[in-house]
Specification:
Layout lengths: L2 H17 L15 E7 L6 H15 L3 E7 L6 H12 L6 E5 L2 H8 L4 E2 L2 H6 L8 H6 L1 E2 L2 E2 L2 E2 L3 E2 L2 E5 H6 L8 H13 L3 E3 L7 H22 L10 H13 L12 H9 L3 E5 L3 H8 L8 E5 L6 E5 L1 E6 L5 H11 L2 H11 L15 H12 L1 E4 L9 H17 L2 H14 L5
Parallel strand pairs: 1-2, 1-3, 10-11, 13-15
Antiparallel strand pairs: 3-14, 4-14, 5-6, 7-14, 8-13, 9-11, 9-12
Helix pairs in contact: 1-4, 2-14, 9-10, 10-17, 16-17
The structure holds beta-D-galactopyranose (GAL).
The site of beta-D-galactopyranose has 12 residues, from loops.
């Protein structure tokens, strides 16, 4: 793990670390679990649902006396699930364990609110402190405790493309946004949608936008957006918004009616050439029978080679989990090599542990492992790593308006204000 990565993770967590003061030590050690355990997530799409099922199978083999209740709320990036979860937690109706993004989403939303038990004891009992990168532990920590168990590392800034469509049009993956727009013109002339977008959930716009921000700003200035050292009123953000506005001329007309996986399906069908999506799209492509580097290709989203926008899915132990022992059993599987090596090759993510069995991972995922080890690591906005939920929502509101009116100036002003409101910018 390189020092830059540690530095960015430390910055991501700085606010949460200051605020989380209410840790109480957990009761020690699990008893033999039984009964049922409710696992709450948003993994219902192709790839992610099968990955979760594979981890359930590992659990069932190890804990045959515990029945899993698969409590999923459909909707990419957990937009709907997080709302349902918040209502349940408010009502004192916590599931036994729930999916949560590492970083601000975990710390600012749940740890600060004193809704979680620390899981440091699981890391100690299972010797996990030796098998997780220190930077990953840090992103899960505040106040000297660890607050959830990560199952994976995902990459946000990937451009997936239909290899046949590219070959038919004499294209290679564009390395910059300028090259992308050149390729897009060629594709338009051939009657193919250049960029598939499924932004029925605003997070998909945020997802595309974070890649455009990174392309415009580079990794250092992109990081600076989240600690107030990069000016939201500056030319980098203007350039990213202008690129976004231009990209909207090349997307499918029904984008606002589609989900991320329906957009991915346009690429599968050859109706669209590319989509910019996290590598859960790899899980989706494989779930419909495609093979990486055969039917579909992948490249860093244009202009972002050498940088890796990271996020991590994790599971936590809410206070008041009805079946605490069952939840601990689940978390033990989530953190195990067997659990991660069953889940991630199907999910389209790489293990959060450093000792995953590389031979189980396909050519794309091996390349992601290599990039994670060597690239500049920067946090995802759209998936809970870079900024607090309130800030993400405010940027999302600005993007929602922007998609409708493409008013760069107004969107940039709203985003600059969101940074001020988050208490990060002056
Ligand atoms: C992300 C999550 C991924 C994947 C994706 C689409 O937020 O981290 O695991 O599920 O949403 O639902």
């Amino acid at each position: 793990m390189n020092r830059r990565y540690l530095a960015v993770l430390a910055a991501v967590l700085a606010v949460g670390s200051l605020l989380a003061a209410c840790a109480t030590p957990p009761p020690e050690g699990p008893a033999a679990p039984s009964g049922s355990v409710e696992i709450f997530s948003w993994w219902t799409a192709g790839g992610e649902a099968e990955g979760l099922e594979a981890m359930y199978e590992v659990f069932a083999a190890e804990y045959p006396d515990v029945e899993i209740i698969n409590a999923t709320v459909a909707g990419g990036a957990g937009m709907e699930a997080k709302a349902v979860l918040a209502t349940r937690m408010q009502a004192g109706d916590a599931p036994d364990s729930f999916q949560v993004h590492a970083g601000h989403e975990l710390i600012d939303s749940w740890v600060v609110a004193d809704k979680m038990e620390p899981v440091t004891f699981l890391f100690e009992e299972n010797d996990w402190l030796d098998v997780y990168p220190p930077g990953v532990i840090e992103v899960l920590s505040s106040e000297d405790d660890i607050w959830s168990v990560p199952v994976n590392i995902h990459r946000s800034n990937v451009m997936w493309y239909n290899k046949q469509v590219f070959a038919d049009n004499g294209l290679t993956p564009p390395a910059s946004m300028d090259e992308f727009f050149d390729a897009a013109d060629t594709l338009m002339a051939a009657g193919v949608t250049p960029l598939a977008l499924g932004d029925s959930g605003v997070w998909v716009d945020l997802h595309l936008f974070e890649s455009l921000l990174l392309a415009e700003l580079g990794p250092d200035a992109y990081r600076g957006l989240w600690d107030g050292t990069t000016d939201w009123n500056g030319s980098g953000v203007t350039g990213a918004l202008e690129a976004f506005a231009m990209a909207m001329e090349y997307v499918n007309t029904d984008h606002s009616a589609l989900s991320w996986d329906q957009a991915a399906q346009l690429v599968v069908d050859g109706d669209a050439a590319t989509t910019v999506m996290g590598d859960w799209a790899e899980g989706y492509f494989k779930s419909v029978g495609l093979t990486p580097d055969v039917e579909f290709g992948y490249a860093p989203s244009p202009g972002t080679a050498g940088s890796f926008i990271m996020l991590s899915d994790s599971f936590g132990l809410p206070k008041g989990a009805p079946n605490r022992d069952g939840a601990i059993a689940w978390l033990t599987v989530c953190g195990s090599k067997a659990g991660q090596d069953a889940f991630n090759p199907i999910k389209g993510s790489i293990p959060a542990r450093t000792d995953g069995d590389r031979s189980l991972y396909d050519v794309y995922l091996q390349s992601a492992m290599d990039d994670f080890a060597s690239n500049e690591i920067v946090p995802s906005l759209a998936h809970g790593a870079a900024a607090s939920e309130g800030w993400v929502t405010a940027v999302g509101d600005a993007i929602t308006l922007f998609v409708a009116d493409l008013d760069v100036e107004a969107a940039q002003a709203a985003m600059a204000q969101a940074c001020v409101d988050a208490g990060v910018c002056q």
